[in-house]
Amino acid sequence: MTKEIVEMGFLDHLEEFRWRIIKSLIAVIIGAIISFVFINKIMELLVAPTQNINHQFTLQVLKVQGMFMVKWGLAFVGGFILGLPIITYQLWKFAAPGLYRTEIRFILPIIIFTYIAFLSGILFAYFVLIPFSLNFFTSMGYGDIQNNISINYYFSFITWLMMGAGIIFEMPIVSFILSSVGILTPKFLRMYRRHAIVAIMILSAFITPPDPISMLIMTFPLIILYEISILVSAGVNRAKRKKEDKPA
Predict the structure, then answer these.
(1) Per-residue pLDDT tens digits for 131-179
(2) pTM, full prediction
(3) Cβ atoms 207, 161 nearer than 8 A
(4) Total Cβ atoms within 10 A of residue 27
(5) 96 within 8 A of 104, measured Cβ to Cβ
(6) Using one digit for the tens of pLDDT, what is the confidence trace for 179-203?
(7) Among 64, 120, 157, 161, which has the minimal tally of Cβ within 10 Å of its Cβ?
(8) What's the gap between Cα 99 and its chain centre?
(9) 225-247 as b/e, with b when 16 or more CB fall inside 10 Å?
(10) E runs forming strands in 55-186
């Protein structure tokens, strides 16, 4: 089946991209409003990991507008999470004119798996990374110095961990997309597996507390994700070869 080619000028592409961004922003804003309605429940959920820390830990507001900024900041993070399927859809639709119809039919599975992978990363950070990080850093106390933490910094820290883990868990999806357009191959991923493991360990050291246990906890799932990415790439390339070998 041939691909329908629609010629678009540079300004037409810019206009199309602008509207995709606007629609994505609208989705984020609507998601932020919904999140703000439940903001107290969200904050209660995000503060919950501090209840199981083995050391003294107190959150405090250091600015008059501190809670206002925290609530709206969390609302927009929630808006991004709720709006991620729409954002993924808009990006895919922007790229769709340059794809074959057989590739376009993957849009719904891509949106679903992108969202599942992102939420899996957030849950991994919430239940594993954040408790280990909080326990490690609060254990570094000295004498009578208390762990009185700015609530702005606390929420910035944990949202950074959750969003970062969510993005990292998109590795198999990125592998699928890059393999579909011919940029990535399983041979390339296998060839640089050792280099990738070293890079993963360095990345894990950056996003976790500087202790070997936390680093291994983050490294292990990342290596699994890398191996899954190889399988995904192999599956995509195998499907492409079958399609090319099929008689016209």
Answers:
(1) 888 887 777 767 677 778 888 889 988 888 888 888 888 888 888 877 8
(2) 0.78
(3) yes
(4) 20
(5) yes
(6) 876 778 888 888 888 888 888 888 7
(7) 64
(8) 25
(9) bbeebbebbbebbeeeeeeeeee
(10) 58-60, 148-150
